[in-house]
Structure formats: C-alpha cells, structure tokens
Amino acid sequence: MKKYELIPEGNLFRIRALKDFKDIKKGDLGGLVSGEHNLSYEGNCWIYNDAKVFENAKVFGNAEVFGNAEVFGNAEVYENAIV
To answer: Which among 9, 23, 68, 71 could bridge 57 via Cys, Cβ 3.0 to 4.6 Å?
Structure first.
C-alpha cells in the first residue's frame, strides 16, 4: 500500500501522507520530490517541511530529511540517517 501521494507544486511534487505511521498522520504534507523514485514506500522514511529530494537521489529505510535540506544527484539517505 502506498504511504503518500504526489501533489504538483511547480516543477516538483509535494508529498501527502495516505496513512498514519511513525509521527506522520494521514493528510500531513511533507517535502518535495521530483517523483516516486525519490522516496520509498517501504519503512518509515519521510521528507519533512520544505526539504527537497530530486534528480536520482533516494530516501529509504527509516531515514528522515528535514528543514530546507536538498538531497540530489545520485545521493542515498537510508537506514536511520537524519539530514
């Protein structure tokens, strides 16, 4: 089951939670991605606030990206990492 949906916002997409998990509640808005390939549906990973994950970057596992952080290129944020 998908845990988020994409909402167009400029040339990126804002994520919106489709279910409760960790500290996220259904309907909560998250950060920005360029597509579904940037944020895994598995685990408790999430992108918060106005953080951006784009290009070929990936967030998975239980990793979290906060604030105004930008993760891009071929970067991978995973396991229990916090950016």
So the answer is: 71
pTM score above 0.85? yes
SS3 for 58-71 is: EECCCCEECCCCEE
Neighbouring C-alpha atoms within 13 Å toward the C-beta of 19: 8
Q: Which two tokens stand for residue 81?
A: 């990492």
The radius of gyration of the chain's CA atoms, rounded to the nearest angstrom, is: 11
- What digits encode the pLDDT tens for the residues 1-60? 799 999 999 999 999 999 999 999 999 999 999 999 999 999 999 999 999 999 999 999
Q: Are strands 64-65 and 46-47 parallel, antiparallel or unpaired?
A: parallel
**CA–CA separation, 62 and 73 (whole Å):** 20
Which letter does DSSP use for residue 73 in this model?
A: T
